[in-house]
């Protein structure tokens, strides 16, 4: 995967280290119903323009909810198995 592809998927890394340009760090937080905040880190390493390894965590249980939320805004492709939703035709 290239840097541009990672950037397209994850966005700009919020933590930029000018001394380690081949390392991108992402931090995610999620507030639980109990009031606790869970923090997870994801670190990506590049060699040249290619992603070579990654380490860390994310919130896999939130994948479906996030996908549903993004579809509301048209930012995520629908499942290939589902037919596209028909939009009403306006007479205007």
Explain what you see.
The chain is α+β, with helices and mostly antiparallel strands and 92 residues long. The protein has one domain: Beta-lactamase Inhibitory Protein, Chain:B, domain 1 (2-Layer Sandwich), CATH 3.30.1450. Helices cover 20% and strands 29% of the residues. The protein is built from two helices and three strands, in the order αβββα. A three-stranded antiparallel beta sheet has the order 1-2-3, with no helix packed on it. It is flat and about 50 Å long.
Question: What is the compact description of this entry?
Answer:
With 92 residues, the chain is α+β, with helices and mostly antiparallel strands. It has helices at 3-10, 63-72; strands at 23-31, 37-47, 50-56.
Furnish the topology, listing elements before pairings.
Blueprint: H1 3-10, E1 23-31, E2 37-47, E3 50-56, H2 63-72
Antiparallel strand pairs: 1-2, 2-3
- Walk across the major sheet and give the strand order: 1-2-3
CATH topology title: Beta-lactamase Inhibitory Protein, Chain:B, domain 1
CATH class: Alpha Beta
User: Structural class of the helices, strands and pairings?
Assistant: alpha+beta
- Element order, helices and strands? HEEEH
From the 3D coordinates, which CATH architecture would you assign?
2-Layer Sandwich
Number of domains: 1
How far apart lie the N and C ends? 46 Å
Count of DSSP strands: 3
């Amino acid at each position: 995967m290239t840097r541009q592809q990672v950037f397209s998927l994850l966005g700009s890394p919020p933590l930029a280290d000018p001394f380690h340009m081949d390392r991108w760090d992402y931090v995610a937080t999620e507030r639980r119903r109990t009031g606790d905040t869970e923090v997870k880190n994801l670190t990506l390493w590049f060699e040249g323009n290619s992603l070579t390894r990654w380490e860390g965590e994310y919130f896999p249980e939130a994948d479906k909810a996030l996908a549903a939320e993004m579809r509301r805004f048209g930012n995520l492709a629908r499942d290939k198995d589902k037919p596209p939703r028909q939009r009403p035709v306006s007479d205007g």
